[in-house]
Amino acid sequence: MSITSIASLYFRKRQKELEKHFSSPEELQEKVLHRMLSVGANTLYGWEHGMTAALSYEEFRSSVPVNTYEELKGYIDRMRHGEKDVLWRGQVKWYAKSSGTTNDKSKFIPVSKESLKYTHYMGGNDAVCYYLQNNPKSRIFDGRALILGGSHSPNYNIAGSLVGDLSAILIENINPMVNLVRVPDKKTALTAEFDKKRELIARQCLNANVTNISGVPSWMMSVLTRVMELSGKQHLEEVWPNLEVFFHGGIAFTPYRKAYEQLITKSDMHYMETYNASEGFFGLQNDPADASMMLMLDYDVFYEFASMDAIDDNGLLTDESKVVPIEGVEVGRNYAMIITTSSGLWRYMIGDTVRFTSVRPYKFIITGRTKSFINAFGEELIVDNAEKGLQYACQQTGAQVREYTAAPVFRSEGVVPHHEWLIEFTKEPDNIDEFARILDTKLQGLNSDYEAKRFKDINMVCLKIVKARKDQFDDWLRSKGKLGGQHKVPRLANTRKYIEEILNEK
To answer: What is the DSSP string of 357-413?
Structure first.
């Protein structure tokens, strides 16, 4: 009997519990809200907002406002300076540093012991749980897990308090037993300088029996590329013949899928999407045949959703009446996600947008960011449109995209408004203008607002593509001190701030 067969016995109880996501999802969320309120009632924030454990959902939403980071920032800073019982009980000593995707300013997301145990680690556990359920012949525990992580640093002068990438916090607090089955070693995993870390990881993992890999697709590809250079092999399965699954998250996988499939050509390679962020772990792809993810309802996260017609151009809520709990969502509609967590994020707008593909079970896809879209001319282009458009254009031309960002070009003398896309190709199309035409046409097919604004080239003309040089995006991230970890390139923006900065990265 393999080690994986023995380990699989541990997951059977949880596999049974997960069935409640199909049978009684609303009940799961009701219990979560009660648990949050029971603790919140004994905090400064709870006292200020009249929280009690007995509040109904309607009473909760009338007592506690929807918050952005700016509303909670003052409380979080008090927590970072060591104050107890502010947003959550006790002293929270860990803070995930997040820049978001459209804001250079760092955010410091509190990560309590409860959220580590009952959200982040539960998410990782359930990813394996679902994977084993779908792949009973797996040998995942018979080898090593390559898990990419960031780094951390002291938080002010508070003893034992640290701030850094969420992945570094997870590695720092993980059960020591896990270190027996993961690579690289902890010291390497927490190395701050990404280029140095990449080299160390590649060399440590080169001769290991890696069966599974976990991380952000862009940074994982960078590490794997170095592994291939060191090995001299053509395909990754020649280096790691027992590799069977990539647990990926952080950014959309669509632009990277073809590159991974060319790197890993074995027919039994699996890919599983996860939705984990600094603020929590929210979703898992429980069915490999379905690209949507299961909303995980029994973690320490209570969910609400705001209709996108109640969100303004700054990503702010304008109509509280259009916020609903899970039982109020509709399939096919785009929503901004609002969360309440055991780290003290009360009715917090995370900034992500989702669209439900089913209810009972509640399954969804990530469609973008509340601030990551282009609506300069009424075109309402979201990241989901961009990803699908690029995927189609790549399929039609044989091109491969590594990184991209897009922004509007505004009307001026002799210039009709259009979108400018800065794209770093790993494989360039034969004709860049044809690629742009195919992408533009596909976007019109995906988005009726974009199509309307493109009508007869009156309000907008066909998008233009600028080819980025190799590593231009990485160099921009490096200049910001954000290369590696969980930092991301902004995909879409209503201004030219990011695209101009990247274009000027020589």
So the answer is: EETTTTEEEEEEESSSEE-SSS--EEHHHHHHHHHHHHHHH--EEEEEEEEEE--BT
Kindly report the number of other CB atoms within 10 A of residue 30's CB atom. 17
Please give the DSSP secondary-structure letter assigned to residue 415. Answer: B
Q: For 341-398, write each residue's pLDDT tens digit.
A: 999 999 999 988 999 999 999 999 998 777 777 878 878 788 889 999 999 999 999 9
Other Cβ atoms within 10 Å of 261 Cβ, number: 12
Average pLDDT, the chain: 90
> Do you know the residue count of the chain?
506
What is the C-alpha separation between 217 and 249, in angstroms, rounded? 7
Confidence of residue 99 (pLDDT cuts 50, 70, 90): low
Look-up of token digits 């429980």: 286
CB 76 within 8 A of CB 83: no
Identify whether the C-beta of residue 228 lies closer than 8 Å to the C-beta of residue 196: no
| Amino acid identity at 498 | Y
* pTM of the predicted model over 0.90: no
Among the listed residues 277, 393, 397, 404, the one whose alpha carbon sits nearest the alpha carbon of residue 337: 277
Task: Residue 496: name the closest of 368, 382, 410 by CA.
Answer: 410
Query: Which residues have C-beta within 8 Å of that of residue 203, sequence separation ≥ 6?
Result: 230
Burial annotation 85-110 (CB, 10 A radius, 16+ → b, else e): bbbbbeebbbbbbbbbbbeeeebbbb
Q: Residue 108, CB half-sphere, CA atoms under 13 Å: how many?
A: 22
Using the predicted structure, report yes or no on whether residue 101 has a pLDDT greater than 70. Answer: no
Can you give the pLDDT at residue 100? 40
- Measured CA to CA in angstroms, residue 374 lies from 100, 420, 437, 484 at distances of 17, 11, 18, 26
pLDDT given for residue 164 in this prediction: 84
Dihedral over Cα of 359, 324, 281, 385: its sign: positive
Find how far residue 407's CA is from the centre of its chain: 21
Residue 352's nearest CA partner among 476, 437, 268, 251 is 251
Is the pLDDT at 322 greater than 50? The verdict is yes
In sequence order, the β-bridge partners of residue 323 are 306
For residue 313, pLDDT over 70 is answered with no
Q: What is the pLDDT of residue 485?
A: 61
